[in-house]
Automatic annotation (TrEMBL):
It holds the Pfam family Ligase_CoA. This is Membrane protein FdrA. Residues 14-135 form the ATP-citrate synthase/succinyl-CoA ligase C-terminal domain. Coiled coil: none annotated. One of its GO terms (molecular function) is catalytic activity. It comes from the Bacteria. InterPro entries: SUCC_ACL_C (IPR005811), Succinyl-CoA_synth-like (IPR016102).
Length: 206
């Protein structure tokens, strides 16, 4: 993807259906407060997603501190709820947020995070984590191609050549096929049928 230093209207990225906008750009703040101070501009832009069902993930940042909005989480949730109500459950909107601030800010960070979580907003600790999660959610899913199991695992059949107890163990284990005791030396031939029976049984599996 090609990059450049030209960002008209604060659009930092617009490619392949994705859009990243800096609402603190001069294009948005001439004659209006920065969204950190007055979130009205951001709220209006978010509410436009009501008519953009193709947008499924919204990534936002919240900055706390003196001079900032008294309740940035509340303002954000109001806009998000407007979108979700308009779109319904068939066109969900996933919202991922980061919160920059401390407990000493006028808007304690933990309280802002709790409000977002209660409003069904995912809060990540860092911007990198938030971006990685957003990328994961929008990336095309690759469905694995079904692979037929090896023939050996598809209906195992056993010919037991040896002690009768081996055959019983196989039969008790539910092993299909020829779990037959077959003698292989002169001491077992009389009890098991001898080589002739072994040959006959083998032909059943060939």
């Amino acid at each position: 993807m090609e990059t450049d230093a030209h960002h008209p209207d604060g659009v930092m990225l617009e490619a392949q259906g994705h859009r990243l906008v800096d609402l603190g750009d001069d294009a948005w703040t001439v004659g209006r407060p920065h969204p950190m101070i007055d979130p009205t501009t951001r709220s209006l832009e978010i509410e436009k997603l009501s008519q953009q069902p193709e947008t499924g993930v919204l990534l936002v940042d919240i900055v706390l501190g003196y001079g900032a909005c008294d309740d940035p989480a509340g303002a954000l949730l109001e806009a998000i709820n407007t979108v979700r109500s308009a779109r319904g459950s068939e066109q969900p909107l996933t919202v991922i947020a980061t919160v920059t601030g401390t407990e000493q800010d006028p808007q304690p960070r933990s309280q802002q995070i709790d409000a977002l979580l209660n409003g069904d907003v995912i809060v990540m600790n860092t911007l990198q984590e938030a971006v990685l999660l957003a990328h994961y959610l929008v990336a095309p899913r690759q469905h694995p191609t079904p692979v037929a199991p090896p023939a050996l695992l598809n209906g195992v059949q056993v010919i037991n050549v040896g002690l009768r107890s081996f055959a019983r163990d196989l039969q008790q284990a539910g092993c299909p096929g020829g779990a037959f005791p077959v003698g292989t030396d002169s001491r077992r031939q009389s009890a098991s049928g001898g080589p002739a029976q072994a040959t006959e049984l083998l032909t059943l599996f060939l």
